[in-house]
């Protein structure tokens, strides 16, 4: 092995990667089915429910997940973001200071979209599983906000894709490949960056969280079924 060879470093654990691509699939599915309308709205609700579970999982994983998945590891204040942007601080492994806040923005916006959808009602064919639990005027307000927030999601997705292109073409740093394989090139990381923990103990922790998130989604879905049976 050449002396200059530096092996790749595990940055993204398997649960974080699975969450990322599952969220991509669910958000894409929700956006497509809302445009198709009609009977596809049933799938729109399903994608929304799955998104609720995914966001709940990620919020908890940000507290107890491995090193680079934790909010405490990658979130920085204004000074930290400015030092990174001005070149006074190197890009850390995992999310950089600016990208970290874009992750938070995405979780908040998508989280609001999925939760507000639970209470939305189009007064025609489709209503969220919990729409019957609140006043009609409040449901109408949340429905309007749900519709308007869609444009913010489009904007965040566009910024996310542009950032990936910029890092790939200008900074020559891979962002997509590590989110697929879990490993980043040593040249893309600070010297001696520690690897993220990833293995059976991490996966077991994630399975317990995923089971709790699934139970939450099933409980929410059951509320609509219970309402249907009461009529």
UniProtKB/TrEMBL annotation:
Gene3D superfamilies: Transmembrane di-heme cytochromes, Chain C (1.20.950.20)
GO molecular function, one term: electron transfer activity
Domain Cytochrome b561 bacterial/Ni-hydrogenase residues, every copy: 11-182
Identification of the protein by name: Nickel-dependent hydrogenase, b-type cytochrome subunit
Example GO BP: respiratory electron transport chain
UniProt keywords, alphabetically: Cell membrane, Membrane, Transmembrane, Transmembrane helix
Membrane topology listed for this record: Multi-pass membrane protein
Location relative to the cell: Cell membrane
